[in-house]
Amino acid sequence: METNLTAQQSDYAVFLPALSSFYATFVGKQRDQGDYVDPARIPAHFVNGVESGNWLAKEGLYQYKWSLYSAGHAEIDVNKHSPKEDMVRNRDHTRSIIVGDSGGFQIGKGVWEGDWKDPNCPKAHAKRDGVLRWMDTYMDWGMVLDIPAWVARSPEGQRATGITTYQEAVDGTEINNNYWMANRNGNCKFLNVLQGETHAEADDWYDRMKKFCDPKQYDNHFNGWAMGGQNMCDVHLILKRVVTMMRDGLLEKGVHEWMHFLGTSKLEWAVLLTDIQRSVRKHYNDSLTISFDCASPFLATANGQVYCDIRTEDNAKWSYIMRSGIDDRGLSSDTTQYGQAFVREGCNPVFYDSPVSKDLRAMDICKYKPGEVNKNGKESVTSWDSFSYFLLMSHNVWTHIHACQEANRQYDNGLVPGMMQHDLYAKYGFRELVDEIIGCADSDDALQLINEHSRYWMSIIGTRGATGKKTVNSTTMFNNLFTEV
Asked: 428 falls in which pLDDT band (50, 70, 90)?
């Protein structure tokens, strides 16, 4: 049971847990108040108190140096004291890397109102500048503030932003890019976000925005790429884009060193993105990092789901298994180890323990006794209190990271997910085919090879289903699903 997950990362594509503001609040407010969580409520094996749940710090029960945090749920006023942000704001940058999600989803859904087509709109400008200052102050890497193409399909987004077409979304994004290019201070390295819901839109978006990564045009160019929309769920388009970036000199060593895939949760994608990263490092840019994020560990807990198993059988679907957790006020004094109680209560035949769960007791999660009221003076349906969610989120984060790493280990041992095995379409395996494409000396030959295997790419299911039509940035649904109790 690994506790140093950073050391286990090897050369795999990097999974970024999309840290929820709910979770970060426990760490930050415990630092600020000292008793935000009653010491008697903290499990004995959390020897550093709530800080034991901070994987970014040496005090954590387990360590992992990478995460994503969204401006959409952050306090972006850098001059405002915000204890709940302390896990992010006051971290050791020498042992942690956080990628900032700019909050384009909030624009698309109409949460951040304003005329984003007008560079002088006060509401839009205030948010544009605020997110930039927040990124430059606290993030290591950050995504530029994109307006996703799907805003044209979002009724609330249209009403709040006035953007009704793909073209207006592109134009609005270019306004944001120009502002950030002119006003960034250099502390944060920025990723140029690519959107588009079809190949044609994605190609057009890239052609419009690629200049912002071009050192021939900008001394303070953006430093890498973030793949949204169809770009993050369509292998055909991803490979085509990587090849065109190399052709255009926009994936260069020491210049463009990060490529992030937004909201990517399927376990199979943990290995296919590793294949792409390894091939680019081998043939073109040995310093490129490919990363991907999702909020599943947090959203699962919000819905009462607990990670309990990992499946990586050859020629089968790969996944982390979630089941409804034990939730019974009758277990409020049960000292049975949590995983054993999980199996005993019929939640799942097996339970995959983490450094968090291995010393938890059933009563640590099923906190409320029969008839006991919560802090709001109400007897809730659930036996979980807010800290129960924090504990299970910490367990789920470890299990998701471990699952991504274990999938890569099994893939390297010769096991291959079922959706990547299609002998009718590919004469090689996915890894070999990708390596041949990236290794082509001529970009036209590489693009032709990609097109020749279009049926193969279509058979690889995108992170949100076959079409990949919807782009939902990480952590954006958390507050809609979770109610603190």
From this structure: confident
Q: Which residues of 158-169 are buried (b: 16+ CB within 10 A; e: fewer)?
A: bebbbbbebebb
Same domain, 317 and 288: no
State residue 190 phi and psi, 5-degree precision: -105, 145
Residue 111, φ and ψ in degrees, nearest 5: -75, -40
CA distance 371 to 378: 9
Q: For residue 159, what are the CA distances in angstroms to 105, 117, 124, 173?
A: 15, 13, 14, 18
Do residues 399 and 470 share a domain?
A: no
Same domain, 178 and 32: yes
If you average pLDDT over residues 421-431, what whole number do you get? 80
We report the CATH number of the domain holding residue 243 as: 3.20.20
Q: Which two tokens stand for residue 483?
A: 């109610």
- State how beta strands 289-294 and 258-261 pair: parallel
What is residue 315's DSSP assignment? T
Element (H, E) at 225: strand 224-227
Residues contacting residue 76 through CB under 8 Å, at least 6 positions apart:
127, 130, 131, 133, 134
- Cβ pair 149, 205 in contact under 8 A: yes
The partner residues of 306 in beta bridges, in order of sequence, read 323
User: 309 with 295, same domain?
Assistant: no
- Dmax over Cα atoms in the chain, in whole Å? 72
Read off the pLDDT band of 463 (50, 70, 90). low
The rounded distance, in Å, linking the Cα atoms of 320 and 148 is 29
Given 361, 384, 405, the domain boundary residue is 405
Contacts of residue 449, defined as CB under 8 A and 6 or more positions apart, other chains included, come to 433, 436, 437, 440
Residue span of the structural domain in which 357 resides: 305-405
Domain presence at residue 210 = yes
Choose among 321, 102, 324: nearest CA to 191. Answer: 102
Asked if 438 and 284 touch (Cβ cutoff 8 Å), the reply is: yes
Number of domains in the chain: 2
- The H or E element that residue 477 is part of is none
Same domain for 344 and 198?
no
Residue 247 is encoded by which pair of tokens? 């052709």
Query: Kind of pairing, strands 141-143 and 189-194?
Result: parallel
Whether residues 337 and 282 share a domain: the answer is no
Query: What does residue 361 show for φ and ψ, rounded to 5 degrees?
Result: -110, 160
For residue range 80-112, list pLDDT tens digits in order: 999 999 999 999 999 999 999 999 999 999 999
